[in-house]
Design goal:
The chain has 214 residues and is of the alpha+beta class. The protein has 2 domains: 128 residues, Pnp Oxidase, Chain A; 75 residues, Methane Monooxygenase Hydroxylase, Chain G, domain 1 (Up-down Bundle). The chain contains 6 helices and 8 strands, in the order αβββαβαββββααα. The chain has a 6-stranded antiparallel β-barrel. A two-stranded antiparallel ribbon has the order 5-6. Strand 2 and strand 3 form a beta hairpin. Helix 3 runs parallel beside helix 4, helix 4 runs parallel beside helix 6 and helix 5 packs antiparallel against helix 6. It is globular. The termini are far apart.
Length: 214
């Protein structure tokens, strides 16, 4: 299993979809960065998120490995679109559909690394194949994933008072959406418009607050 994990995560920091269970045993999925360190997988969730709350409460988890940007989009903004099945060995769920690999795991250690983030060490229990993403490389597909990653950073940056970085992040989202509008399918363009609209709403509220304080 370790050899396969090293192959999957051979490029350092990777994006995946992490599924945990909430207090009512319902699945919760969120995009998450992960890396392999020795024999363990490391994630660093924001402590304000449902994912962290579920992990802190003792949830097992599943790492869904996929390059399908619509699944990332659904996890953040259209969670009702995701379909699940029970995991094989841990008390969590797998996402049905365009998933390349499933990695089931249990939490070994949680430690705070800043005022807003924690480091979680995961012991991989099992790994097995899914249906597969089955798509050729697409710049627009990758751009939507990047836009979603930047979107998740907006609120934490606002909480930290890093307003200049908020606007820089918003500009990156706009640039990525422009690329999607040039190269993407109608499905990707629709998702990108939604991401940009929500990001615009967040930054507009921030700008109004800043003007009010001035």
């Amino acid at each position: 299993m370790l050899e396969l994990l090293r192959k999957i995560f051979r490029y350092g920091h990777h994006e995946i979809l992490l599924t945990t269970i909430d207090i009512n045993n319902n699945p919760n999925t969120a995009p998450m960065g992960v890396k392999l360190s020795n024999n363990f997988l490391i994630i660093e969730p924001y402590t304000s998120t449902d994912t962290y709350s579920n992990i802190a409460r003792g949830s097992d988890l599943v790492i869904n490995v996929t390059s399908d940007s619509i699944l990332y989009y659904s996890s953040l903004l259209r969670p009702e679109k995701l379909n699940y099945s029970k995991a094989r060995h841990v008390n969590s769920f797998i996402i049905n559909g365009n998933i390349d690999m499933y990695i089931e795991g249990r939490v070994m250690k949680i430690e705070n690394i800043s005022s807003i983030r924690a480091r979680v060490v995961i012991d991989p229990i099992d790994i097995y194949e899914g249906e597969g993403s089955n798509a050729a490389y697409s710049r627009a597909n990758n751009a939507l994933i990047e836009a979603l990653v930047y979107y998740t950073k907006l609120q934490p940056l606002i909480i930290q008072g890093q307003h200049h970085q908020v606007m820089e992040t918003y500009q990156r989202i706009k640039d990525l959406v422009a690329l999607i509008n040039r190269l993407g399918s109608s499905e990707l363009k629709e998702a990108a418009r939604t991401v940009l609209a929500k990001a615009t709403n967040i930054t507009s509220k921030l700008q109004k607050q800043c003007r009010y304080k001035d």
